[in-house]
Design a protein that fits this description.
Layout (H helix, E strand, L loop, with lengths): L30 E6 L7 E6 L2 E4 H6 L8 H7 L5 H4 L4 H13 L10 E3 L3 E4 L7 E4 L3 H11 L15 E3 L5 E3 L4 E2 L2 E4 L8 E4 L3 E2 L2 E7 L18 E8 L2 E2 H7 L13 E3 L4 E2 L7 E2 L24 E2 L2 E7 L1 H5 L5 E7 L7 H9 L10 E3 L14 H5 L5 E2 L5 E2 L7 E8 L7 E11 L7
Parallel strand pairs: 6-22, 8-16, 9-26
Antiparallel strand pairs: 1-2, 1-5, 2-3, 3-4, 6-7, 10-11, 12-15, 13-14, 13-22, 14-16, 14-17, 18-19, 20-21, 20-25, 23-24, 25-26
């Protein structure tokens, strides 16, 4: 579905959008929700371009969306993306109109814009469901090896996309502080468990698919239709308290070790914008079992997405000394063992209904090289410390540490596009309560 909106020669009358370093050129146009800083204004839907945000409600008021379907015009005036995402084909129609409005030879209307520095970015969606997959075989193997050195992968891993259902109430937008959770833990030397703040706090760098059109309960989405139900992608940080998780996860899986916070980036990059960066899916070894027919698409040649995911850490002391964040990892979403289409098809195969705005997270994005491991548990193994530029050492996160996830796509012959960032600073646990 590559068309003239992906032309690398396209330029905008918004000069910052023409920088090769921007995440938001005219070829991207991701959607989010904002309001002017320092106000209690009603949230508005916006489009990121360069260092500006296009206010879609203002576009509508000025007649710039005239001729689009009325349902799409109305959805552009909402205060959350769900109604817009629920409209079939809305993304493509809106994208083409915005390219017409913003291209360099279009009439300049600065009244449609608000500078990003003047905007507060808000939760872009209202997720009613959140499912976190375990789609990287490298992550699953690295973590499994810590607990089962001889058989790191469980027997089902290569047959079925593994996932758990998460908590939507604690999903927060990038920039929201993350409070260190309390939980019940039991160390190897402890005679009994105790309730205390987590001492093994971690991040997990992920990509999340945001659902557009859903499906009715009892009516599975077939794999060849799965991507038509996905509106776009965002960055996601699945914060994880490893000590709480280790004590509680058997037999039913993650609970308090995961539900205290999940951060997402504020901009949703559409599947249309990502069209030039599709790639072949992960190449399964010939010795691996082939997926069952319901997980086997008719044409899988471009089921992957070449999205680079980077993670940076900056401590309180590094900020005080004005030191740049330390890059911890750089992985690729193309390395996922299970594709997005397979995740959606499997999720609904038993009749589960997905809703507009639901999040389908990939699980930690990790690859084969050591420097592509997407969480501290993989990087340190729970014991090998990372040294920071200040001489500080980290096995897990300390209070004041800031984690920033970047995501971007690059391919020769196309404009680079990015996802912005997903950030969170760890703040201390609440004081003890009796």
């Amino acid at each position: 579905m590559i068309d003239d909106t992906h032309d690398p020669g396209l330029r905008s009358w918004i000069e910052a959008a023409n920088s090769p370093a921007t995440d938001f050129p005219i070829q991207n146009l991701p959607l989010g929700v904002f309001r002017r800083k320092g106000t209690s204004d009603r949230p508005q839907i916006g489009i990121a371009i360069g260092d500006q945000i296009v206010d879609l409600a203002r576009c509508r008021e000025r007649g710039q969306l005239a001729g689009l379907p009325q349902s799409l015009e109305d959805a552009c005036g909402a205060s959350i993306l769900n109604p817009l995402m629920a409209l079939d084909g809305a993304s493509r129609a809106l994208r083409r109109r915005l390219v017409q409005l913003l291209r360099v030879d279009a009439p300049q209307d600065s009244g449609l814009l608000i500078a990003m520095r003047d905007a507060e970015l808000l939760m872009p969606i209202e997720p009613r469901g959140y499912t976190d997959f375990y789609a990287s075989i490298f992550h699953a193997t690295n973590v499994g090896r810590l607990f089962r050195p001889d058989t790191p992968l469980l027997p089902n891993y290569k047959h079925v996309p593994i996932a758990y259902h998460g908590r939507t109430s604690s999903i927060v937008v990038s920039g929201t502080p993350v409070r260190r959770p309390w939980g019940q833990t039991k160390g190897a030397a402890d005679p009994s468990p105790a309730l205390r703040p987590s001492q093994r706090l971690d991040y997990e760098a992920e990509i999340a698919a945001v659902m557009g059109t859903g499906n009715l309960i009892g009516e599975p989405i077939v794999i060849d239709d799965a991507e038509s139900h996905v509106f776009g992608f965002c960055l996601l940080n699945d914060w994880s308290a490893r000590d709480i998780q280790a004590w509680e996860y058997q037999p039913l899986g993650p609970f308090l070790g995961k539900n205290f916070a999940t951060s997402i980036s504020p901009w949703i990059v559409t599947l249309d914008a990502l069209a030039p960066f599709r790639c072949a899916p992960f190449a399964r070894p010939a010795s691996d079992p082939q997926p069952l027919p319901y997980l086997t698409p008719g044409n899988a040649s471009n089921a992957g997405f070449a999205i680079t995911v980077e993670v940076y850490l900056r401590s309180d002391r590094m900020r005080d000394e004005d030191l740049a964040p330390l890059r911890l990892s750089r992985g690729s979403f193309a390395d996922m063992y299970w594709s997005v289409a397979q995740m959606v098809a499997h999720h609904t195969s038993g009749g589960c209904n997905l809703l507009s705005g639901d999040l389908i997270a990939s699980g930690t994005v990790s690859g084969s090289p050591d420097d592509s491991r997407g969480c501290l548990l993989e990087i340190t193994g729970g014991s090998r410390a990372v040294e920071l530029p200040t001489g500080e050492r980290r096995v897990f996160l300390e209070d004041g540490d800031e984690i920033t996830i970047h995501g971007f796509c690059e391919r020769a012959g196309y404009a680079r596009i990015g996802f912005g960032t997903c950030t969170g600073v760890i703040i201390p646990a609440h004081a003890p309560r009796h």
